[in-house]
Amino acid sequence: MVTATITDGQIRRLRLFQLLSPSLPVGAFAYSQGLEWAAETGWVNSEQALANWLSDQLSQALTYVDLPILLRMIEAAVADDAQLMSHWISELRALRETPELRAEETGRGRALADLLGSLGLLDEPSVHWRALLSGSQLSGFAFAAAAWQIEPTDALLGYAWSWAENLTLAGVKLIPLGQTAGQRILLRLAEQIPAAVEAAQRLDDADIGASTPALAIASSRHETQYTRLYRS
Prior knowledge:
The chain is mainly α. 68% of the residues lie in helices and 0% in strands.
């Protein structure tokens, strides 16, 4: 019998895959981030339109908000600096432009904090982090990445991929499109993600922030949409 040697690097990659898994019980499948209204009103009604919608968000919101803040949250978790983590959670919540998007951030944050507690990541001496991480799903992702010693660049790449996959799946259901169309969109987005991560890593604190009016309008209008499958 051949016994495989498992390296620390392999374990870290597998832990990242676990964080990115659609089976992670944090409710990502329940949110469309305004895409449900955009599809209902005809803004996003084709494969090309969905690809453009997500590409625009990737180049703006992800590059200038989520990814640079995720990087700073990982650094705060590595340094065990709860005050710094709290600062970036507050910054992130302020940059979520609608009540639905802020509710998604906190709702998924509570679910992820509960999960991390169940996985033993928030036992002593880290138990004091639990209430803090409940305020933001991005902070929980950062804390887990730091605890499992996942390279920050890999964490950012993985987070961007997970975001793209979740919203592509939502779009495929809502428009609707075939699964193959969804894979073509993901192929296109995957080509953009490394550049987005690289740009995010170069940003100074003062450069963090983005204006995404179409997303804000769609999310705001979704709050009163007559029939809804998604919570945002």
